[in-house]
């Protein structure tokens, strides 16, 4: 029983390290590549503080949920 609890504890710790915080610039580049692959033109992506989207569409969150990436058509 102790081994089972130890194993579960280790898997829990390992799982949390896989859910690492993604840097905003890396996520922004991924979203940009997906939009370009779909043929989307005339847009801007901007990294803002969480809650500062002000009428723009939020397309991703980064840095542990403290910042957002917003999309706006031009």
Your description of this structure?
The chain is an alpha+beta fold and 74 residues long. The chain is 42% helix and 27% strand. The protein has 2 helices and 3 strands, in the order ααβββ. A 3-stranded antiparallel beta sheet has the order 1-3-2, with helices on one face. Strand 2 and strand 3 (67-73) form a beta hairpin. It is flat. The termini are far apart. The relative contact order is 0.19. The model has no long low-confidence stretch (mean pLDDT 82).
Quick structural gist:
The chain is an alpha+beta fold and 74 residues long.
Annotation keywords:
74 residues
Could you describe the largest sheet, including whether it forms a barrel? Answer: 3 strands, antiparallel
| Percent range for β-strand residues | 25-35%
Question: How many distinct helices?
Answer: 2
The parts where pLDDT drops under 50 for at least 5 residues are: none
What is the residue-averaged pLDDT? Answer: 82
Number of strands: 3
Distance between the termini: 60 Å
Overall helicity: 40-55%
Gyration radius from CA atoms, angstroms: 18 Å
Globular, elongated, flat, extended or rod-shaped: what is the shape? Answer: flat
Structural class estimated from helices and strands: alpha+beta
